[in-house]
Amino acid sequence: MYSELVNKVVIITGGSKGIGTAIAERFGKEKMKVAVNYHSDEAGANEAVAIIEKAGGQGIAIQADVATEEGNQKLLAETLKAFGDLDIWVNNAGLENQYNTHELPLDEWEKVVSTNLTGVFLGAKTALNYFLREDKRGNIINTSSVHEQIPWPTFAHYAASKGGVKLFTETIAMEYAAKKIRVNSIGPGAVNTPINAEKFADPEKLATTTSMIPMARIGKPEEVAAAVAWLASDESSYVTGITLFVDGGMTLYPSFQGGRG
Ligand code: BGC
Fold first, then answer.
1. So what's the pLDDT on residue 67?
2. Which end of the chain has less neighbouring CB within 10 Å, N or C?
3. Gap from CA of 190 to ligand 1 centroid (Å)
4. What is the average pLDDT value for the chain, to the nearest integer?
């Protein structure tokens, strides 16, 4: 637990399930004031709020489309109305689906890129404007993926969006470092969340994935949330512009294990 996080205000986009809800719970345990954004899963967001409050924090749920400027403005306005301030913005909302690239419909490309990359830009832009206006030492944390580094055939739109998040994070970390605003990403590998539920329910697919992970197991959402809490805390006060991979070693070229190659 990080005592400096007590009563701090945080927005988490895509907080109604998976890694987003795990981050919400962890911030609840840190006794923070947590705004849980959702797009369409109102029940999931209400459940996340209940989890936050049970853990000892305060929570509210806010419906907003992070791919729009109005959605992000609404998110900030409702958070300020409820909690009076903002300290940390977590751009976590994300989508993925699978297509051969030569068959990938333009609207699917646009859906994934507008949530995973444009949503990160708009969330960061909204947070930056607030932090600059209030002269705050703000903190922005983006959910990227191992696929900001590892190419992923049949997920070209997803990989492209996460590659974009990597350079966007690095660029704005540099641009606003002198203003004492930190910007970092987390890079989850294969984590047990609804986005992966179907895949990991199939023993063969699960075995294929774990064979690509040196630690030979799927990650837990709370292991990703722990990395987010560290980036949110003052323990990482000299850290900006990184992606903190939480992947059991998936980004370490595991096919070279044992001297193969
Ligand atoms: C994806 C998962 C995938 C993992 C490793 C993540 O970014 O969301 O579906 O299992 O990368 O490939």
1. 98
2. C
3. 5
4. 98
| Rounded average pLDDT over 140-168 | 98
Measure 81 CA to ligand 1 centroid, in angstroms. 36
Q: How many C-beta atoms lie closer than 10 Å to residue 76's C-beta?
A: 20
0.90 surpassed by pTM:
yes
Average pLDDT (21-34) is 98
Nearest-Å Rg of the Cα atoms of the chain is 18
Provide DSSP, 70-84: HHHHHHHHHHHHHHS
Half-sphere exposure of 172 (CA within 13 A, CB side): 24
Q: What angle do helix axes 221-232 and 18-29 make, rounded to 10 degrees?
A: 50
Q: Which atom of ligand 1 is nearest to the CA of 247?
A: 5
Ligand 1 contact, 146 CB (< 6 A)? yes
159 lines ligand 1 (CB under 6 A): no
Question: Measured in whole angstroms, how far is the alpha carbon of residue 104 from the centre of its chain?
Answer: 25
Q: What is the mean pLDDT of residues 65-81?
A: 98
- C-beta of 46 in contact with ligand 1 (< 6 A): no
Mean pLDDT of 128-148: 98
Average of per-residue pLDDT across 98-105: 98
